[in-house]
Structures are given as structure tokens and as C-alpha cells.
Amino acid sequence: MTDTRFDVVGLGNAIVDVFASVEDSFLEQHDIRKNGMTLIDEERADALVDAAPEGPQLSGGSGANTIVGVSSFGGKAGYIGKVAKDTLGDVFRKDMNDSGIPFDTPALEDGPATARCIVFVTPDGARSMNTFLGASVLFSASDVNQQMVKDAAILYLEGYLFDQEDAKAAFVHASEIAQAAGRKVALTLSDGFCVERHRESFLHLIKNHVDLVFANEDEALSLYQTDNFDEAVERMQADAGLAAITRSEKGSVVISPEGAVAVAAEPVDKVVDTTGAGDQYAAGFLFGVSRGLPLETCAKLGHIAAAEVISHYGPRPEVSLAELARKAGIEV
């Protein structure tokens, strides 16, 4: 896509991830829901950090992880999100800037701390996320960098940010700016429980403000309140211009007006941590779309990125995704 400063600009929760490797018994002892995302308050966050084994702390947030992935493919990317004026906020800003990603949203000076997500990883690779949203959700239309949105080929919206009315308004505001500038808008549904909380709002966005939808199988089924995957695909095709539904080891299904195409997953020697798999799939797919690549190639790039990230701890790539794409025979 021409006449753009960025391939993709993301808008989402600015979060620092805290990782801990635990047994299933730890989850049971501390009443932690396995393999999902649970919203918690600051007191609960402090208690879980105190109880957990010490692990790495990495800047995260689903949308931010995707944006870092786009950059790793060699894409031009920017980010819009909210942190507090505190140590974790400084860490998040530095990590994004060190990745070559402009992040200049003004920090929150009064109010809750920078958001954090405590990610408990069990031996089977499942991740159980407990998220204190803190400053990240105190995001409003006034925080949207209009010029950055206008300068991006694709605006990428993170569904997790949808838990506050001001953030919902910011989504629509940013989408309208992008559409008025002739840009594309993409949305990730983020989490099945997120879909349950915001089903009608998501459906409205998909039908009226979004060009590309990302979901995993559970999210797609939840969106349409069905247990029939083919029905969810059919209804998604009717509502969305373009969509990609991930199915773990089954790969993904790409939906367009021409139909639905299944794309195989990339092989992985050992699954270490599934955190960020969907985020990095979106990174590869978005990068491919921004460069006008065939949809099946976009999905393959997504699977390459997802395979890399689940082979180690953490939600962001540890090696160049552009190099992995070239090794797979895809010039980026």
C-alpha cells in the first residue's frame, strides 16, 4: 500500500507481562482459571506476584505484541496506548522505542499504575492470564493520535481494550479517522470471555467499522453463540469482508468474499509457552496484507510467527521473523 508512513498502527492495552512457571496445583490453590484471561484488581495482582515463583518481566499487551511482530517482519509500525507515569510505564515505552516503534501517547499522571498481566505457564504450555488493567483502560478519543492513524495502511484494534465505554468510543473514533483516510481497519476479538462481555459491540464494529477480523475458534463460536464451526465461518463471511480464524495445531481458516480456505500450521518441535501465538499470527497476516501478498501467504506468515513464539517463553519473537519468512521461501 502506498502513501503511508506505517504499515500497521496498533491501538490497545499497554501492559507489562510477568511470567511464572507453575504446576496445575498452583492454579487450583490460588483459584486461577486455566488457559484464559481473568481481570483482577491491583490488590489481587500484588498477592499473585508475591505468591508466584520469580520469572521474567516483559513489556506486553496483545496489540503491542502484534505490533512488535510486524516490526520483526520488517514492517513499519506504530503504537497507541496508555501507561502511567511510573517505572513500569517507562519500561514499556523504552521497550517499544527500542524495537523501532513510535509510542508517544501521553502518560497518565494521576490514577492507577501501569497495567500488568501475570501469566502462569503450566507444563503443558497452557497460559493462564490474570490482568490488572490499571492505566491502560483510561484511554479516550482524545488519546488517539489522528495523524498516526491517517498515516497507517492498517489500523489494528485490540478487543481487550473494550472494557471501558471511553475506550469503545475511542475505537469508533479511530476507525472513522482511518476509513475517512481510505485506510483499512482490523480487529482482534482477543478472548472468548471478552467476546461474551462485548458481543453486540463487536458485531456492530465488524459490520460497520472493520475490514479484517482475527479470532480463534473459541472466540468465533462465542461470537455467534454456536458450537458448529462451519456455521460460525458462514456467519463471519456474511458479516466481515475478510477474517482469519486460528485453530491451534489445525492451522487457520481464511475467510473472504470468495470463500473459506484452510491453511496448515507450521510444525513445532516443542511447545513451550502458547502466550502470544494469536498475537504473532496476526502480525504475520497483517504484514502480508500491508504488502499486498496473497491471503494464503499472509496466513503462512502468521503461522511462521506463531510457531516461533510458542517455542520459547514470552509473547514476542526472539529471532528475526523476516529471516524465518525468507527461509520458508517468502520474500519480505
Automatic annotation (TrEMBL):
Keywords: Kinase, Transferase. Gene3D superfamilies: 3.30.1110.10, 3.40.1190.20. Residues 45-316 form the Carbohydrate kinase PfkB domain. InterPro entries: Carb_kinase_PfkB-like (IPR052700), Carboh/pur_kinase_PfkB_CS (IPR002173), PfkB_dom (IPR011611), Ribokinase-like (IPR029056). Signal peptide: none annotated. It holds the Pfam family PfkB. It comes from the Bacteria. GO terms for molecular function: kinase activity. The keyword Lipid metabolism does not apply. Belongs to the carbohydrate kinase PfkB family. This is Adenosine kinase. It comes from Henriciella algicola. The lineage of its organism: Bacteria, Pseudomonadati, Pseudomonadota, Alphaproteobacteria, Hyphomonadales.
